[in-house]
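Per-record layout

source: Clostridium autoethanogenum DSM 10061
name: Methyl-accepting chemotaxis protein
length: 382
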Amino acid sequence: MIKVNQIDSVKEFAKVQANLVSGGVVYGIIEGDTMKWVQSSDSFSLDVFHVGKKFDSNSTSLTSIREKRVLSQKVPRSAYGVRLLITSIPIVDEQGKAVGAFSMAIPRLHPVAKAFGNFAPILAEMFSEGVFLCLTDLQKFQYVQSSKQFDIDSITIGDEFGSDFISKEVISTGKAKVEKIDAVKYGTPVMMLGYPLIDEDSNEIVGSFVIAMPKETEAELRNMSGNLTESITGISSAIEELAASASQIHNNEQELNNDISQITELSEEINKISSFIEDIANETKMLGLNAAIEAARAGQAGSGFGVVANQIRKLSEQAKSTVPKIKKLTDNIEEKVDGSSKKSKGSLASSQEQAAATEEITASIEEITTMSEKLSEIALKL
């Protein structure tokens, strides 16, 4: 209890301490049922606590005076618009009679609000892209903390948050929420996480805690993913066309190789015919020679037949001389065909390798396309 002659000292003490109390405080001296003196912190005041205010008989201060004991009471928001812890200390005169009370009203803060000033600056530096933290009561922003990399200038202490701000839904539902906000509102894409703050005594929602993070990297990732998907789709189409062309080239090379094989076979047939002509020429020469011998034996009567025999031998010689020319031509044909055949086989093998390589590339492109689609899905979930 405080004695009447100590009141001036208590007032001086209150003036010094008012701005040292974390969260703020309102001190007051009540005489009878009326507030006679008030001292508030710069950061916290209550308009309802003013000089001349009359207190109800059930109030903490009058109960403390009546019962002549120190009394503390948790006052709900409905009483003064803010959750308070009010402590009253009776003031007694020389006879020990309680004639008043020294009261102090301290805003009753959620543990997160109490610790905000300690943990928020540390947490703000833990995010490489920056982060913005704020804490609200049921209507207004009470604490804010920005980082060097990121700040939301439009959110300031004391301002009421709008119906579209994440805290509104978090407080009304009592559930945490994640919300993605495009660049129109804050100048950059933002992801917000809101959590309800629940009073440990009454189990009532008393405010919200919000973490806002810039998501420029996510937006870039999403754009890159979209561009990658579009590019890969175009490449995939081109590869499919190349694969079709490679397949057609392979078929053409196969047909060419078959045609060359047939030419080789025809050349071999020509060689056989040449050999046959040579045999006939040899036999014809022998027949001409025999005819000439018989004509000589016949004398004058066989002279005409001898002329024919000579012509037959000449024709045989001419036919026989043609065979090497044909043989040389067919040899040249075979040589050319053999060279073409080797090239055709090499081209055929290359076209087969190209077709196989194209199929592998197509498979790789499909795999990359799948990865790109997954990348898009990841980006959308961020």
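summary: The longest helix spans residues 216-298. The first strand starts at residue 2 and ends at 3.
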